[in-house]
Amino acid sequence: MIGIEGQPVLTAAEMRAAEDAVIATGVSVDTLMERAGTAVAHAVRRLAGANDVLILCGPGNNGGDGYVAARVLAEMGVSVRVAALSEPKTDAAKSARAGWSGPVETLAEAKLAAILVDALFGTGLTRPRATASYSSSSPADAGAQLNPKGSSSGLSWAPASAGERSVVECLHSLANAAQLSIAIDLPSGLATDSGEALSTPPVFNLTLGLGAVKPAHLLQPAARYCGQIRLLDIGVPTVSQVEVLKTPSLPAPGPDSHKYTRGMVAIIAGTMSGAADLAALAAMRAGAGYVTLLGDSQGPPHALVRTRFSDHALANDRIGALVIGPGLGRDDTAKALLEAALNTGHPLIIDGDALRLLDPDRIKALEVPVILTPHAGEFDALFGKSEADKITRARDAATRANAIVVFKGADTVIAAPDGRVRIAQGSSDWLSTAGTGDVLAGAIGAMLAARLDPLDAACAGVWLHSDAARRLGAAFIADDLAEALRSARAAP
Asked: What's the CA gap between 73 and 69, in Å, rounded?
């Protein structure tokens, strides 16, 4: 099992293309299924110990992986049973089913087990509930009904009458009773590319991704159902411009360093000066050598240089990153401060209110590195609403504005104009408190002032922000978060 940090992220179509490239070399679909099922079996064997295992198999290739896993587990002496939703539909799945010599229970009648393995649909669902379809590499299965009424299992995706059990209900019942629940590729009921929950699956303890990370492993709401995510190598090379955010390589001061070589960050205070204070404290705790707050503000820390806003102060050529937006306001004064910031020629982090005072064309016209840090509401205001998935939206926005876009949230997506995308793994739910976005802006400012590549600076700031939150645990406030950046920054 492989950790997912830094791994490429592939859509369902990209994964199929990667598999097709391997098949074109002479490797059969059956061989790929054998690899996948065997890898699953070895992972489950390590985790199951002496406990019994129940594998739920669907009609497509994910179910075929489950049949192979069951056969290999049985060969290893593990007590394993299989329950099926319906008969296999693809040739490879039929072959895998033929290799399983044990009984096959119906899903409706499956007995409980200590270890549950979900191989019902994986990345195959494309539509929700009773109208769901299974997508596989076999053209004959395209658009096939997902267990329509009257099938041999006696189940439907969504119940139509009182007393009728659905696939979802059976899955919940079996998972809730298990000591350990494992999903193969994805928990059944999730949309691979968008991260949409097509139904409400149980929350699994572990998801074993086959060959590559999928968007639904990281995007909400799907990611919340996946539990821990690990990859299994199935011998399919994968490459993508989209990757899971990894631990950054952060610059550290050396014997010849001084406050300016470590980076100078300037932050413009607006109507709510506390927001700028938080950004300034975050920049300091994230490692900036010199932080100055331009505007009305007072109080500790005394290491923060507080200066009245002026064209002269803004023109300091030592400023390596200028943060504008936290607590800025949206009145005429705010607009004037923003315009002054845009005209400085300094690298910019644009956050908060400033994002609502701009349009993509104005940002694109700037000839300096720009990092935008919108949450969902600010993103919609700046770039418009869309039904597209978060990765697509962030990437399109980065191209439109010719800027790095940090699309914040429980599933933060960081996109560059050249198409590179980094997706953060799940962050602390306790970040949902006022001021944490200001802290992020300051942390990114420190990274940009340290002369990191703009995408790397954004990624480093997001990583530090998330790691600081993890260290704090529950019920922290933004002030705590800014202080905790020091511990995150000092981590090896």
From this structure: 6
Strands 133-134 and 144-145: antiparallel
122: confidence class by pLDDT, cuts 50, 70, 90: confident
Residue at 176: amino acid letter? N
- How far is the first Cα of the chain from the last one, in angstroms, to the nearest whole number? 24
The answer to whether 15 and 211 are in contact (CB under 8 A) is: yes
pTM of the model: 0.92
Q: Domain extents for the chain?
A: 12-242, 264-490
Least-confidence region, from 285-299, 321-335, 375-389, 445-459: 285-299
Matching fold, domains 12-242 and 264-490: no
Residue showing tokens 């000591």: 179
**Cβ atoms within 10 A of the Cβ of 274, count?**
17
Pairing of strands 144-145, 180-184: unpaired
Buried b (16+ CB within 10 A) or exposed e, 196-227: bbbbebbebbbbbbbbbbbbbbbbbebbebbb
CATH number for the domain whose boundaries are 12-242: 3.40.50.10260
Above 50 in pLDDT, residue 152? no
- The encoded tokens of residue 474 equal 């529950």
Under CATH, domain 264-490 is a member of which superfamily?
A: Ribokinase (3.40.1190.20)
- Is the pLDDT assigned to residue 137 strictly greater than 50? no
What tokens were used for 352?
Answer: 């908060």
Identify the helix (H) or strand (E) that includes residue 436: helix 436-449
Q: How do residues 22-56 score in pLDDT, each as one tens digit?
A: 999 999 999 999 999 999 999 999 999 999 999 99
User: For residue 245, which amino acid is it?
Assistant: L
